[in-house]
Amino acid sequence: MVSINIAARILKHKKAIVIGFSIITIICVFAQFFVTVNYNMVDYLPEDAQSTKAIEIMEQEFEGAVPNTRIMIQDVSIQEALLFKSKLGAIDGVTDVTWLDDVIDLTTPLEMADPETVEAYYHDNKALFSFSIRNGDEVEITNRIYELIGEEDAMAGEALNTATSQKMAGTESMYAAVLLVPIIILILVLSTSSWIEPLLFLLAIGVSVLINLGTNIFIGEVSFVTQSVAPILQLAVSLDYAIFLLHSFSDYRKEKKDPEEAMTLAIKKSFPAIAASAATTFFGFIALSFMTFEIGSDLGFNLVKGILLSFFSVMIFLPALTVSCYKWIDKTQHKPLLPSFKKIGSTVIKLRIPSLLIVFLIMVPAFLAQSQTNFTYGLGELPENTRAGSDLVKIEETFGKFTPMVLLVPKGNTPMEEELVQELEQLENVTSVISYVNLISSVIPPEYLEKSITEQFYSENYSRIIVHTSTATEGEEAFSLVEQVQKTAAGYYGKDAYSLGESVTLFDIKHAVEKDNMVVNLLTVISIAIVLIVTFKSSSIPVVLLLTIQSAVWMNLSVPYFSDSSLVYVGYLIISTVQLAATVDYAILFTEAYKEHRKEMSALKAIKKTVDEKIFSIAISASILSSVGFILWFTSSNPIVSSIGLLLGRGALLAFILVVCFLPAMLLVFDKLINKTTWKANFHKEK
């Protein structure tokens, strides 16, 4: 509990506080431009993941990398294609350019070569090249390649997707902000009685968001998910704190003439509610920090930091700012813009039995369905309205799908390596294998050849084998092939064989996040349950509240299964935590009011009064969070960010419906149990 003295000290130094926060915010605005955004999902895999070890070995032993981009050139002869290959390889940052001449001898007629091999690289006078683009410079290098190929030819691949996401991230964030801020202001104007109050809300939380972004400079870099989602999510989740404080201030202004006295009392009264709200969100987000796939922990840490900064901004900066601007609040008063909600409570009571039946009927199928959804694990394919998306369609129409893998096996045993290559060539969906033993010769010792010829195949300790496949980057077929390749290599070299490539990385991400699922969800539920037990001093209320919000989570996450659509697993994992942590506040606000009213009246009357009083506040909070989610979904081309937005928007609406309809019915059904299992409940007894 905040004492009167602490609140008074805050207001005594209000000018210094406002100036101090302003200076820190300005510094952080500039500091955020020096924070690196990481788009490489491989960097967030656990250190003991197979892909992580393989990449470390590749970087130490070889100069080249796994091919991550393809180009299709139309209307070219063999000689013209070879000329283009040399031009492409001359671009700084482009390495390991592979084409038909790397797998067959072009001095012999093409008719004598294997048709499938030829058509994988050259078909209908169209040539397909695969190559690597240097990490970190994707935007610059792909721009140079576009200058080389012009508008007619096509480029696709993992590196291009990264470059496209980077270029679109800034404009999409601005687009989201341009749409979001007016909507939030409109919602806040409708919920307040002063035209200037919404600006104070946004200033208080906006300052904390900017400070959070700027303090990331001490971390050095953040993931693209954190950069895209965290600022908007922090704004949406913590606006409630400012609303709690200023509504309390408005109430005390009616009783106290001195604004400082009114604010002092408002700080003291609203502190428990704000602290409880912040605590549930804080501990929910901390659970994300335990993800072994570190995109989750990166986002979790950033949101935890953001919640703390929002809390301090609302409890210190907002009171100082509000008291400094109270005359403007008085001058800009207006009448309520929305009608009263006094009759909603009666309707909710009438619908309590249907509400219980419907939710209990849906709950179990939703719980089962949300774990049976078809998941994806990477960025996926970009929309066809982007050049990268449309180019991919052009390439796949001619050459089909293509995903390369690289095997690193111990150097030295040429006969074993030759056997492995022959076995790999027989695997279904393997289109070609490029290695020293089948491209040069297994009988020619590499020591007899120039280093420029052998260095792409052999390092000091390892032999590199490139496997070209016709699968997508992920999915049942792709992951099955990854397992087959790894199992085949392990049959010869055991644990000394390593594999890498986009499909291998996604295969490892799949295993990492599936392990995280149980841990993160369990930690979220346990930590929020503890906060609820401490807040309500009850063993039954936390169960009722968690069941209400968790049911909304299950319903939300089951929609992709019933609509037969895939869902990005990272989004699924993050939202199962974020939705619970962010929307449990609605249930807390409702139940706290019900407990107080229940001390003075019957359960039915207490529910009716609580619904009439709190539905407006809960609707405002839910509409802001839902707007944030749907705008992220609408504006982002990044599949992970977009899926988080859609799930957040839909989840906030479902949580609102269940808190207003299902929770009142649960509180009525378990009223006697709550009375017995709550410390000093003191519920009203009818005479």
Number of individual domains: 4
Overall 3D form: elongated
How many strands, which pairing sense, and closed or not: the largest β-sheet? 5 strands, antiparallel
Q: CATH topology of the largest domain, anyone?
A: Multidrug efflux transporter AcrB transmembrane fold
Which CATH C-level class of the largest domain is it? Mainly Alpha
Q: Give average pLDDT, whole number.
A: 85
The CATH superfamily of the largest domain is identified as Multidrug efflux transporter AcrB transmembrane domain
Q: Provide a count of the helices.
A: 25
Architecture per CATH nomenclature, i.e. the level-2 architecture of the largest domain: Up-down Bundle
* Class computed from helices, strands and strand pairing: alpha+beta
The proportion of strand residues reads: 5-15%
Q: Compute the separation of the termini in Å.
A: 36 Å
Radius of gyration: 30 Å
Q: How many beta-strand runs?
A: 13
Spans of at least 5 consecutive residues whose pLDDT stays below 50 are none
Give the fraction of residues assigned to helices: 55-70%
